[in-house]
Amino acid sequence: MSFLEYKELIEDGDTAIVFLGHDYMFPVTIQHGSQTQTKYGVIRHSTDLIGKPYGSKVTCSKGGWVHILYPTPELWTVNLPHRTQILYSTDISMITMMLELKPGSVVCESGTGSGSLSHAIIRTVAPTGHLYTVEFHQQRAEKAMEEFRQHKVDHLVTVKNQDVCKNGFGVSHIADAVFLDIPSPWEAIGHAKDALKIEGGRICSFSPCIEQVQRTCLALEEHGFTEINTLEILLRIYDVRTVTMQIPDFGKATEDEGSSESGDTAKQIPASQPSSAMFKSGISPKESVGHTGYLTFATKSLF
Ligand code: SAH
Questions:
Q1: N or C: which terminus of the chain carries fewer CB neighbours within 10 A?
Q2: Hey, whose CA ends up nearest to atom 18 of ligand 1?
Q3: What is the set of domains in the chain, with CATH numbers?
């Protein structure tokens, strides 16, 4: 199993996603002899999972069923064990696009955190690019390395356990893009500039507070970055629901009033007409996710 490609059958050692519904799924490591509890009963890895195709509907011991999905960076982002705040697909898509990431790109990132963004970057730059990710919290750096190994993407990523503000990214003039998700990004802009290729590249910094953004923009300007832009992305999701709506009572219509060309629209409303109607509609949930953070983008240019 590798996050970089698809394979058909579930094997011992794989990471798989147990899917009970769109808002209820979790990751498992497949192991001979092991079993996983769900609200529908137990799944036995040796008999129920190993050798079955990904996407299979698996019946649990209490008769309910789940689907077993092949992991992708999108699914990992909503299933990974949180060790920090993480970036979600909405921001990640914008970051990937605006940093102009593609297969072969070399990217520097800090901090690694829970590896949500890292997995997405790695898939985008594969098979020939590389991610250098810097995390100063030792356990987080080690856990990220362990997950990259398990997901068979470790050849595309180097994890460094150091303070990016003091020691930088440990590489110079090789990066096409730099991404920062740390509390004081302005302290790392000089190191970001050193990491970027001589001929230029793109940078992005994620910060939840506008004061952090202001300091970062000033630092970017001082270091000669151009095209400095900050934006915030707000996601609105619509659920399809059956809703009931009252039919308004416009009073009685008579035969002679308001007759149309066909002459059949001005009829008296029959007493039997229902007072409400049910139909399907797209509804935005009352509570939607609000502000996550500001994304500041800039370009290191030759001139
Ligand atoms: N973008 C990540 C989450 C990053 S959370 C994701 O999507 O999963 C921020 C991380 O930055 C934390 O793990 C924190 O330990 C790390 N960090 C903060 N300051 C740092 C610094 N100066 N050098 C390196 N890592 C730092």
A1: C
A2: 182
A3: 15-71 (3.10.330.20), 75-232+295-300 (3.40.50.150)
